[in-house]
Amino acid sequence: MKRAYKYRFYPTPEQAEELVRTFGCVRLVYNKALEERTRAYKMEGRGVSYAESSAALTAWKKTPELAFLCEVSSVPLQQALRHLQAAFANFFARRAKHPTFKSRKRSRASAEYTRSAFRWRDGRLTLAKMGAPLDIVWSRPLPEGAEPSTVTVSRDPAGRWFVSLLVEEKIAPLPPVERSTGLDAGLTALLTLSCGEQIANPRHERRERRRLAKAQRALARKEKGSKNRAKARLKVARVHARIADRRRDYLHKVTTRLVRDNQVIAVEDLSVRNLLKNHALARAISDAGWRELRRMLEYKTDWYGRTLAVVDRFFPSSKLCSVCGTLQEAMPLSVREWVCACGAVHDREVNAAKNMLLAAGPAES
Ligand SMILES: [Zn+2]
C-alpha cells in the first residue's frame, strides 16, 4: 500500500529560490500543455497523448523564449504533464470537470519529484539541482526502512513549505468487529450515527470564523498594491491555514475511531457539488468537510480491512421509517423530529443513519 507522509521543512534562501523557479516552470508547462490540448480538441476534435505533450515540451525548451525551462529539474515538468493527462482522463470518464489553468495566486504551488530526481540517504532528502539536503521537521517517524518513491514539495498561501513522501507500507488489517454503523452527514451535527450518537462540528470553528472575518475586513481596507495589503493577505492566509489544519486533525480522529469500531460503515453517496447549489446549506457542509471525511473513510476502510458501503443518493433515507419501512410523502428540512403511523418516534438524522445501515445490508464476514 502506498502512503504519504507530509512534513514541514525550512528551505535555505537558495533552495527557496530554486523551488519558486521550479513551481513557476511547472505552472507554465501545465498551462501551455492545457492550452494546446484545448486547442487540438476544439479545432481538430482530437485528444493529445502524453507522448505528444512530452515532445512539445522538448521543443519548447529549444526555443529562445522558453530556454529557461532547462534550468530547473526536468522531472517536475514531466510530472506536470502526467497530472494533466490524468486530469483529462478523469474529465473524459465524467469523474471531474474540465481541467483549468493554474494561477499564481489561487493555485497551490507544488512540484513532484520521482526517484531519479532526488537522493535519499540515511534519512536525508536532497532534491535535483540542490547541493544540500532539505531541513525537514520530522514531526512523526517514517516507517522503519521506508524508501520514498515520489516526493512532492509545496508551499501554501500562508508561506509554509511542505514535503510529502510517498512510501510503500504494509498495513495490517484490524481484527474484525461485530458492530457496523450508518452515517448521516448533518447540519446541526457533523455526523449522526445509527446508534444515536452525534458527533459535533469542531467547537473552535466558530471562533476561527470570526477571526477570519476580521482579517478579511482588515485586508479590504488596505490600499491595492501596498505593502500593508500584502501583509494583511498573508494574515488571512494564515487563519485559513489554521482552520484547515485543525479541521483535518479533527476529521482524522473521527474517521480513525469510526473505522476502528465498525466493520461496515454505510454512507449516503451525497454529491457535494449538488448540495452546494443550495446556499443555505453551503456553509455548514463546507465547514463540516464532508468531502474530506469521505475520502479519509475510503482509504482507512481499505487499509484496515473494513467496508465502506455507499448507498445510492436517490435512496430516500430521511423519508423512510427505519422501524416499519413506510415511506413518508414529504420530509422538509425543517422537520427535525417526527412520529410514524406505526408509533415510532424519530430523530430525523438518527433515522436516516439507521436506514443507511439497513440499505447497506448485513455485514460481510
Ligand atoms: Zn413506522
UniProtKB/TrEMBL annotation:
It comes from the Bacteria. Coiled coil: none annotated. Residues 290-356 form the Cas12f1-like TNB domain. Residues 1-45 form the Transposase putative helix-turn-helix domain. Keywords: DNA recombination, DNA-binding, Metal-binding, Transposition, Zinc. Residues 168-278 form the Probable transposase IS891/IS1136/IS1341 domain. GO terms for molecular function: DNA binding; metal ion binding. The keyword rRNA-binding does not apply. Pfam families: Cas12f1-like_TNB, HTH_OrfB_IS605, OrfB_IS605. One of its GO terms (biological process) is DNA recombination. InterPro entries: Cas12f1-like_TNB, RNA-guided_DNA_endo/Transpos, Transposase, Transposase_put_HTH. In the C-terminal section; belongs to the transposase 35 family. In the N-terminal section; belongs to the transposase 2 family. PANTHER family: RNA-GUIDED DNA ENDONUCLEASE INSQ-RELATED, TRANSPOSASE. This is Putative transposase. It comes from Nonomuraea wenchangensis.
